[in-house]
């Protein structure tokens, strides 16, 4: 098997092979979207598709999944580091755990997946949030 070629340009998606939690159909999903609710291309049921046990995936040095991003913004012990970073990015983190949510400075709600993808498509912001994650996960 040939090694996976991972594009270095952050605007090029890195794909992971995931399985639908309902029908187990496998399909490709952007690595950064792992953990996000999405409809299955086969059975159409919305679910959180994941990499099957034993499966591997390519990733870039600083890329993170949506699941990791949600952990960052929802865990109370991380807020001291994550809150100020998100404020720098123009967003306010409110609530904890299931109630965690994002707003723009003007009070407009922001879809966390949208915010995550926005951070992951910027080379600098992707690196910056990775550093924030490393500072709370170590
Ligand atoms: Zn399915």
Strand order of the largest sheet: 5-6-7
Low-confidence stretches: none
Main sheet attributes: strand count, strand direction, barrel closure: 3 strands, antiparallel
**Pairing-aware structural class of the strands and helices?**
alpha+beta
Task: Give the helix level as a range of percent.
Answer: 25-40%
The proportion of strand residues reads: 15-25%
Q: What form results from the Cα inertia axes?
A: globular
Give Rg in angstroms: 16 Å
Query: What ligand species are in this complex?
Result: zinc ion
N- to C-terminal separation? 34 Å
Average pLDDT level: 92
- Note the total helix count: 4
Number of domains: 2
H-E string: EEEEHHEEEHH
Structure summarized in a few sentences:
The chain is an alpha+beta fold and 138 residues long. 31% of the residues lie in helices and 17% in strands. A three-stranded antiparallel beta sheet has the order 5-6-7.
Task: Explain what the structure shows.
With 138 residues, the chain is of the alpha+beta class. The chain folds into two domains: 11-59, no CATH class; 66-137, no CATH class. It contains four helices and seven strands. The chain has helices at 66-74, 79-88, 112-120, 123-137, and strands at residues 15-19, 26-30, 38-39, 46-47, 91-94, 101-104, 109-110. Strands 5-6-7 form a three-stranded antiparallel β-sheet. It is globular. The protein starts with 14 loop residues before the first strand and ends with a helix. The mean pLDDT is 92. The chain binds zinc ion. Residues 20, 22-23, 25, 40, 42-43, 45 line the site of zinc ion.
């Amino acid at each position: 098997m040939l090694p996976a070629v991972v594009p270095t340009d952050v605007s090029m998606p890195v794909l992971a092979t995931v399985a639908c939690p309902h029908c187990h159909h496998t399909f490709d999903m952007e690595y950064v979207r792992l953990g996000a609710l999405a409809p299955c291309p086969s059975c159409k049921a919305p679910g959180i598709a994941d990499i099957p046990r034993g499966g591997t995936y390519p990733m870039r040095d600083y890329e993170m999944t949506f699941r990791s991003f949600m952990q960052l913004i929802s865990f109370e012990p991380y807020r001291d580091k994550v809150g100020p970073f998100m404020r720098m990015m123009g967003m306010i983190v409110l609530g904890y755990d299931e109630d965690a949510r994002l707003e723009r400075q003007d009070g407009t709600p922001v879809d966390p997946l949208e915010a995550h993808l926005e951070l992951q498509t910027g080379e600098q912001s992707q690196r910056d949030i990775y550093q924030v994650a490393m500072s709370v996960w170590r």
